[in-house]
């Protein structure tokens, strides 16, 4: 039986058993978690997730309080921190920022693979756009600076009441340490390092347990879920900034095989992916056919499987939760 079919059966059984008390996390979570552990961990090592219907009370989670390396999913927090400064009148979305060649970082090549001459300026709105939709690391580290740096982003999260969520380094620093480079992974430094040590490129998709054990730039699924819900509710940012950020996330081009991978065609998804070594993550919002929405954070780590298998694990969880929330609604009616 496929994972999502098993979970649908669990949901129907739970409704019949618990009636109006259905979806109390303590009642159904062990069965759901066991189903996911049985199937998904074979595809992606260690799994953690947390999900909640927008406006609902019950959280469906598995390993929800375990910390995972966020990789690029932490860019949601950076974007929110920048937008908080916009809301406070300290920055403007149409404010232009110089992007110099020495700022270019390695990674997805939205900027460093397109602009090779001096003279580039981008608005803050466009920096956030490529940071989220293309996971561009240059735009991310510039945005991190606009937010006030990693410590300022973490302080912003604590102000929201979100713990178990650390932002400690720029993406340049994270990637530089992952590859063992002598400094932040600027394009110039990385090219020089990879030319001198081409074997470094081979570790790109390999798990790095020492890296994963580093507590910096890690979060629990519950903490990421709390941020997603705070953004959606207008608590983390203003309603105007929320609409801007969710609009950007709805245009994400990375990770088409993750949260979106097994959902019915045309299902609205607003998300942000993250990938480094044996880590493959995806977080965001999924809209059900009846218009209800749920927020979800799926983290993986310590995976020695190919990236398509990790993507499939996330897709299985996403579809299982999609069906789960549908079954809950229908079974209660």
From TrEMBL:
Tell me the classification of the organism that encodes this protein.
Bacteria, Pseudomonadati, Pseudomonadota, Gammaproteobacteria, Alteromonadales
Annotated Beta-lactamase class A catalytic domain ranges read 50-300
Q: Which InterPro entries match?
A: Beta-lactam/transpept-like, Beta-lactam_cat, Beta-lactam_class-A, Beta-lactam_class-A_AS
Please, one GO biological process term? beta-lactam antibiotic catabolic process
Look up the domain of life of the source.
Bacteria
Task: Give me the reactions it catalyses.
Answer: a beta-lactam + H2O = a substituted beta-amino acid
Q: Which gene encodes it?
A: bla
Tell me, what is one Gene Ontology molecular-function annotation carried by this entry? beta-lactamase activity
Signal peptide span: 1-23
Keywords annotated in UniProt: Antibiotic resistance, Hydrolase, Signal
Put simply, this protein is called Beta-lactamase
Q: Which family does it belong to?
A: Belongs to the class-A beta-lactamase family.
Q: What is its EC number?
A: 3.5.2.6
């Amino acid at each position: 039986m496929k994972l999502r079919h098993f979970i649908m059966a669990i949901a129907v059984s739970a409704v019949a058993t618990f009636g109006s008390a259905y979806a109390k996390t303590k009642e159904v979570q062990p069965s759901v978690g066991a189903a996911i552990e049985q199937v998904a961990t074979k595809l992606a090592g260690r799994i953690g997730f947390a999900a909640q219907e927008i406006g609902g009370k019950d959280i469906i989670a598995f390993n929800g309080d375990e910390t995972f390396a966020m990789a690029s999913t932490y860019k949601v927090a950076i974007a929110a921190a920048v937008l908080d400064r916009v809301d406070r009148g300290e920055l403007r979305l149409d404010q232009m920022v110089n992007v110099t060649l020495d700022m270019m970082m390695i990674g997805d090549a939205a900027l460093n693979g397109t602009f090779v001459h001096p003279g580039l300026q981008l608005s803050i709105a466009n920096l956030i756009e490529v940071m989220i939709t293309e996971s561009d690391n240059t735009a991310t580290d510039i945005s991190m600076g606009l937010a006030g740096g990693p410590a300022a982003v973490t302080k912003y999260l604590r102000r929201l009441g979100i713990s178990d969520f650390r932002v400690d380094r720029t993406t340049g620093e994270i990637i530089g340490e992952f590859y063992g480079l002598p400094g932040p992974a600027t394009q110039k430094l990385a090219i020089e390092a990879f030319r001198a040590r081409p074997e470094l490129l081979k570790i790109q998709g390999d798990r790095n347990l020492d890296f994963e054990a580093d507590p910096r730039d890690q979060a629990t699924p519950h903490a990421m879920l709390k941020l997603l819900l705070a953004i959606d509710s207008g608590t983390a940012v203003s309603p105007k900034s929320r609409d801007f950020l969710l609009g950007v996330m709805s245009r994400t081009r990375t990770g088409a095989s993750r949260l979106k991978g097994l959902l019915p065609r045309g299902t609205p998804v607003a998300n942000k992916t993250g990938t480094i070594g044996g880590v493959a993550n995806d977080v965001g919002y999924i809209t059900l056919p009846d218009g209800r929405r749920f927020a979800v954070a799926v983290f993986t780590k310590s995976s020695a499987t190919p990236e398509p298998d990790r993507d499939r694990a996330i897709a299985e969880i996403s579809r299982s939760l999609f069906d789960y929330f549908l079954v809950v609604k229908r079974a209660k009616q």
